[in-house]
Design a protein that fits this description.
seven-stranded mixed beta sheet; SH3 type barrels; 14 strands; BirA Bifunctional Protein, domain 2; homodimer; alpha+beta; Arc Repressor Mutant, subunit A
Chain lengths: 335, 335
């Protein structure tokens, strides 16, 4: 634990009480000026720290994804260990991670923000990212994978998210291939994977994750409100963002390391089981047009297999899936 | 023609002669200070301009890829029209084009350098880029293409390069799928395509091209010297870099616009005809290992089809091809 984390812990141990700067300096063996610098950094990170002649105190409980909250309890080996970059506000964690990756930041660099001013989803959509209501996070990966296996990274990310919801909150989420996580028919999380490649190999992938946690949907646009849900809406208690993010990073790292070790099979099997599109009649929209058919499997590379009405099999890397089955059965019922 | 191009033309019209600054200012209807600023810019671009009381003169013929040389005779509609960025020296034109693309520079932006200090080829290799001896160029593309069709861009680039050699220099080059151009068994040009993608679509591709023109191979490392060739080595006359680049940009644009218009078939047919691997026994090395077999076609998406010794067909996006046929026939002859 570094000096800043120790100061934070001392303040948290005595919520609402004053902790003298002199006592902190003595016990941590640093100058009082150093203590004051760390206090200023904690305030910049979003902590409500009062200061007076009596010392310092936390005037409000912190619910932050700052390094001081996340790093001490983080059980990963690589993800977020060396570089955990935290922002009160950023345009988009994916943008920032891409900027860092192009400067050479290594695999496992994690970018987290309390708020995104230009949060992005797939296909140029906005990802609503109000202050403190979600988890907005990106990880830099530099896998030695051929380009055709790139979808595996989205697949394992989706599995890691659903596992996290299951173990931390007892929420059964499902994967809408390739990049969305649903609970009770509404979107609770999304993935935006962006890659730089020279065709032979992948220079880096930035995997962006947005989780809806304590969203105040009243503030959201209508179409978003009816299509989305959050941990708060599905669960009695608002989720602890800190524990969720720590577990998510751990699950992500575990599945990613399995992939690199050539052990993707069990992740893929989970993805098949958790899929909400396999076995369904679907419509797939891509840049090139659309296909209607039955989604019947996800292959080893993470591609969706769809058999169209002419019996032709399409191996699909990406696209926008709409599940048609429920609509069809509803129409049947009405007849 | 802008003021700078007009000044350059006036100097070129009278090689070795002094052109008065006052006369230039009068004829172009600008101040003498403006003339002097443009002269300084021309010197920065690499022109050998003398100045004296008598005026200005070109003291040496220019062989530069500067805007003043390239743009007046450039017949493209988009490529290099709005943004033609020229550098005496840069780390790598692909690096610079990627930096510009991430800042939003549009499709058709062209980056050209006289010299690269960190010129790159595929698979992390160096591309030797000595001052003025080659063409080092990158174009930003923003095609509405699904990721699986991305190889088409490398294919059309290879075709555009071979066409340029054929029409400008009467040199018959062949394509070593996917990214190299050979003449008489030696490499004369290479392509490095780098893409940013979110799986659904391509945000941008930077297509980098390196052509060996007037290379002094004595200065090159041994292994490079035996494997590479140049226009100068294959042709009686050293190539005019200006005309070559102008024609290359025009050919590139034509094939690219055909691709976007859904007319890739004839480009692909050219690529098949020009291929030096179709019909050959090859070894393909990829991140995942290697395949030995017969390369028998390039499919619609630009993937190489290889039938291995067990009769299995591999559809290959990328990798390093070695042609084995000549070795085999040699061995047969020796037996």
């Amino acid at each position: 634990m570094n000096v800043r984390e120790s100061i934070l812990l001392a303040l948290k141990d005595r919520p609402g009480d004053w902790v003298s700067g002199e006592a902190l300096a003595l016990s941590l063996n640093v100058s009082r000026t150093a203590i004051w610098k760390h206090i200023k950094a904690l305030i910049a990170d979003g902590y409500a720290v009062d200061s007076s002649k009596k010392g310092y105190r936390l005037s409000a409980p912190a619910d932050l994804l700052s390094p001081g909250e996340i790093c001490p309890g983080l059980a990963t080996n690589i993800f977020g260990r060396k570089h955990y970059l935290y922002y009160r506000e950023i345009d988009s964690t994916n943008n920032q991670a891409r900027r860092l990756a192009s400067k050479g930041y290594p695999e496992g660099t994690v970018v987290v923000a309390e708020m995104q001013t230009a949060g992005r989803g797939r296909r140029g959509r906005t990802w609503y990212s109000p202050n403190g209501q979600g988890i907005y996070m990106s990880v830099i990966l530099r896998p030695m994978l051929p380009l055709k296996e790139i979808s595996r990274v989205s697949i394992l990310t989706a599995v890691a998210i659903t596992e996290t919801f299951a173990t931390e909150l007892d929420l059964q989420a499902r994967i809408k291939w390739p990049n969305d996580i649903f609970i009770n028919g509404r979107k609770i999380a999304g993935i935006l994977s962006e890659a730089v490649t020279d065709m032979d190999s992948i220079e880096y992938i930035v995997v962006g994750i947005g989780l809806n946690i304590n969203n105040k949907f009243r503030e959201f646009p209508d179409d978003f409100r009816t299509a989305a849900t959050s941990v708060l809406a599905e669960h009695e208690l608002p989720g602890s963002r800190v524990k969720l993010l720590q577990t998510l990073l751990l699950n992500l790292e575990r599945h990613y390391q399995a992939l690199l070790a050539g052990q993707f099979a069990s992740t893929l099997e989970q993805a098949r089981t958790l899929s909400m599109v396999i076995g369904q009649e679907v419509r797939l929209d891509t840049i090139n047009g659309f296909i209607v058919g039955r989604a019947f499997d996800i292959d080893d590379n993470g591609y969706l297999l769809i058999r169209d009405q002419q019996g032709e099999i399409h191996t699909v890397l990406s696209g926008e899936i709409s599940v048609l089955s429920s609509t069809i059965s509803k129409e049947n019922t009405l007849r």
